[in-house]
Specification:
single chain, alpha+beta, BirA Bifunctional Protein, domain 2, 4 domains, five-stranded antiparallel beta sheet, 14 helices, globular
Length: about 500
């Protein structure tokens, strides 16, 4: 898997230098391994990006005052292992797809693949200002991890052959690893239970001892004052965990927060110290059985099989199609070449985009229904009744809202949603293309006040269309959920009828 590194580029002078460096003909086989996106001429990329930023300031009414501290672009370095056995052209394409997915295809960029060292690597520089909505790209806390995940996903898909060798890990190995190493999660589960079932600090300490937690409150920290050390006595925890390392945001395991929480508990609503261990075990077992989904993925459903994941092509809701990565720790390979999949309802699985769209994903509950339905295998659920009730109520409310009835009502409603989705989706694509074309024309000249107003109006139209799209998608998902539940009920009734006939 490639390694990724991201850098900020501040001020236009540094941007010019960075682009000149990455486009060096000696490093890029005479610039044959360079390309641009929304850029007319790669060697002029810094100037074109500058014009986009200038137009954004004028249209959005921002100050024209330049700052040496302004982030004007982002620089991504994507390095590959020589053992990956990838060509420079393949590596270049992996970089292009990576930045397209990261930015949603809305930002200008240049990419250069360097081959002058012992390993091939991509240099990608993209404009911090969007060419479509003219807003700045927000590099947030989780963006670095997002970049790495996107890079790994695309590189794995494009760079690995179908292998018969054992996978790097599996669901069984992953669960064993979590049990043996994830002491923080185990510790917090026990502490959260004690927060609800303690009436004062001494009561808390006694019950913590019963759950094999050593509590030492006689510590001080320079930054945090009085702190509590927690250590599991039945788990290979090498050193105590301080309260602020378990929860930095609110420090809910600190002495003051504990006392504050205990004041809200009533003695009749908590377990006695002699009951606490069994009560926790009962609750923990219940949590372990929360909606999990188990099913089999057949070999013919797998588009690509790598050491790290399998990739499946899915059609979602009859209006979306794409390849989705399912990582190895969600799978156990069976003897016949199929895979047993283990999903949580809220798991997120991301598409490998064929187009320059923002990252799309499916939840585990949805993806499992699609794949198990295609393969004809039984989807095994755990405690899914509550979720089904919620989905069915939402679906019935939706049908009532649309005032449809009759045998074909549900089918007609579904077709209406599909038509709405396609219509809005096409309108968004057309509008974005129009906005981009207009912005490209105007960035080479100072926009008039009339042009500024036109751009602002187009942006408002775009925002409204996006809101409409999200509403329809939400209702379409509710419709699909209701349909799935009703189909399951029909299947159950058929099976029951067959059994009765046999009797």
């Amino acid at each position: 898997m490639p390694t990724t590194k991201s850098l900020t580029i501040q001020n236009e002078r540094n941007l010019q230098r960075a682009i000149k460096y990455i486009l060096n003909p000696e490093k890029t086989m005479g610039q044959t391994l360079t390309s641009g996106y929304k850029i007319n001429y790669v060697n002029n990329a810094d100037f074109e990006m500058k014009l986009t930023r200038k137009m954004a300031r004028l249209v959005l009414g921002q100050s024209n005052k330049k700052s040496d501290q302004e982030v004007v672009a982002r620089h991504i370095i994507q390095s590959f292992d020589p053992n990956d056995n990838l060509t420079p052209e393949e590596i270049h394409e992996i970089g292009r797809q990576t930045v397209l997915e990261l930015t949603g295809g809305n930002h200008e960029f240049v990419i250069a693949t360097h081959v002058d060292q012992g390993h091939y690597h991509n240099h990608i520089i993209f404009n911090a200002t969007s060419s479509v909505d003219l807003k700045k790209f927000r590099w947030q806390k989780g963006t670095t991890n997002l970049l790495r995940n996107i890079s790994d996903k695309i590189a794995d898909y494009h760079g690995a052959m179908i292998l018969d060798a054992p996978k790097r890990t599996s669901h069984a190995k992953y669960e064993k690893y979590k049990r043996e190493n994830n002491y923080r999660q185990i510790l917090k589960e026990r502490l959260d239970f004690l927060l609800r079932h303690s009436i004062n600090f001494e009561d808390f300490k006694q019950k913590a001892h019963a759950l094999n937690i050593q509590v030492d409150e006689l510590h001080k920290s320079k930054d945090y004052g009085q702190v509590i050390n927690y250590q599991l006595t039945d788990f290979p925890q090498q050193r105590p965990a301080r309260d602020y390392t378990l929860n930095k945001k609110s420090r809910k395991y600190s002495f003051d927060k504990l006392v504050e929480r205990f004041e809200n508990n009533h003695i009749e609503g908590v377990y006695h110290v002699e009951q606490i261990k069994q009560a926790f075990q009962d609750e923990h077992q219940k949590i372990e059985q929360e909606p999990d989904l188990e099913f089999v993925i057949q070999p013919w459903q797998i588009e690509k099989d790598t050491m790290n994941a399998i990739y499946v092509r899915v059609e979602y809701g009859r209006y979306e199609e794409g390849v989705i990565k399912i990582p190895d720790y969600k799978l156990d390979k069976l003897e016949d070449g199929s895979y047993k999949a283990y999903f949580k309802n809220k798991d997120s699985f991301y598409f490998i985009n064929d187009e320059a769209n923002k990252s799309k994903f499916l939840k585990g509950a949805v993806l499992s229904k699609i794949l198990s339905g295609e393969s004809g295998t039984i989807l095994q659920r755990k405690n899914s009744a509550i979720q089904n009730v919620r989905e069915m109520v939402a679906a019935l409310n939706l049908i009532s809202e649309r005032q449809v009835n009759g045998e074909k009502a549900v089918e007609v409603l579904g077709q209406k949603f599909m038509d709405d989705v396609e219509q809005i989706k096409q309108a968004l694509q057309n509008l974005d293309a129009h906005i981009l074309k207009q912005n490209e024309q105007l960035k080479y000249e100072n926009p008039t006040e009339e042009n500024k107003l036109k751009i602002k109006a187009l942006q408002l139209e775009r925002k409204d269309l996006q809101a409409q799209y999200q509403k329809v998608i939400k209702k379409m998902k509710t419709y699909d959920a209701g349909q799935d539940i009703m189909n399951e009920k029909i299947h159950e009734n058929v099976q029951t009828a067959d059994k009765d006939m046999q009797i």
